[in-house]
Design a protein that fits this description.
It is a single chain. It is built from eleven helices and no strands. The radius of gyration is 19 Å and the shape is globular. The longest helix is centred in the first third of the chain and has 28 residues, at 32-59. The chain folds into two domains: 1-155, UbiA prenyltransferase (Tetracycline Repressor, domain 2), CATH 1.10.357.140; 156-283. By secondary structure, it is mostly helical. α3 runs antiparallel to α7. The chain is 67% helix and 0% strand.
Length: 283
């Protein structure tokens, strides 16, 4: 892979699927204009989020060189110069802004909020305990809100709560696995890890998981008049949480977003969930 393309972290682009959630649940999937706007919104978030990854690697270049894995990142490995990285950051940022503005002014405002938050996160807020994981989760909320603006769909309170809780749990799990997988001698490559412990993260997860599951159950009852099949997804969600927790405790799973494509049980559960949702929505 070209170091310039690798710098964009294409494996992270999967996160931007969250932009499509309002279009799907709003039942406007077959509207050509809405579909095209939603695809453009995904592309806009890809450009913006990649610009953030470039900025993050610029800021963290020195600490990444001390990390056993991150030292291979293009800027840390000096495969891409800082001047070239700055040029890529500017091009990606301006391209993302131009594309988002072409969709709608409302979507552009959401993107501005997202980039302001993520830049603040990359520069200094990621070093603040708890705030780092909260902002990661809020980044996904911004994606869903942006998707709603692009599709012309009102994003419900339930959807915002569920997206926030689910991604907060994933962010916590990532921190847990980073602590678990890193040797103590290189622990300081991410400053905030010095403030977390596995025991603390497990206690917080024990609070978030039941709240997330309970919220999902209430959400399915709320959607029951429109989608009678949705209630059947409750056991799938329960199984997915149980399997994910098992993988966290028994392996190094969860530190990288690539891991989500390695467990066939989670993939199958996700596919079955999506199929039931689609059938219920009449698509």
């Amino acid at each position: 892979m070209s170091p310039y393309f690798k710098l964009l972290r294409p494996h992270q682009w999967l996160k931007n699927i969250f932009v499509l959630i309002p279009m799907i649940f709003g039942r406007v999937f077959w509207n050509p204009e809405v579909f095209w706007n939603s695809i453009l919104a995904v592309l806009s978030f890809i450009l913006i989020s990649s610009s953030v990854y470039v900025l993050n690697d610029l800021v963290d270049a020195e600490s990444d060189r001390k990390h056993p894995v991150k030292k291979k990142r293009p800027i840390a490995a000096k495969q891409v110069s800082e001047e070239e990285a700055i040029g890529m950051w500017v091009v990606l940022l301006l391209s993302g802004f131009a594309l988002s503005y072409s969709i709608s002014i409302e979507f552009f405002i959401v993107v501005l909020g997202y980039i302001a938050m993520t830049m603040a996160y990359s520069i200094f807020l990621k070093r603040v305990i708890f705030l780092d994981i909260l902002l990661i989760a809020l980044g996904f909320v911004f994606r869903v809100l942006g998707g709603g603006m692009a599709a012309g769909v009102v994003v419900t309170d339930w959807m915002i709560v569920l997206v926030f809780l689910f991604t907060l749990f994933l962010a916590l799990s990532k921190r847990r696995q980073e602590l678990k997988n890193l040797k103590r001698k290189v622990k300081k490559t991410r400053e905030v890890l010095n403030l977390y412990t596995i025991e603390l993260i497990d206690q917080i997860s024990a609070i978030i998981v039941p709240i997330a599951i309970t919220s999902y159950i209430f959400y399915t009852f709320d959607k029951r008049p429109d989608n009678p099949y949705f209630i059947l997804t409750i056991p799938i969600i329960l199984y997915s949480f149980f399997q994910y927790l098992y993988l966290l405790k028994s392996s190094s799973f969860g530190e990288s977003s690539k891991d989500y494509l390695t467990d066939w049980k989670l993939i199958f559960a996700g596919a079955l969930w999506f199929m039931l949702v689609m059938v219920g929505l009449g698509m």
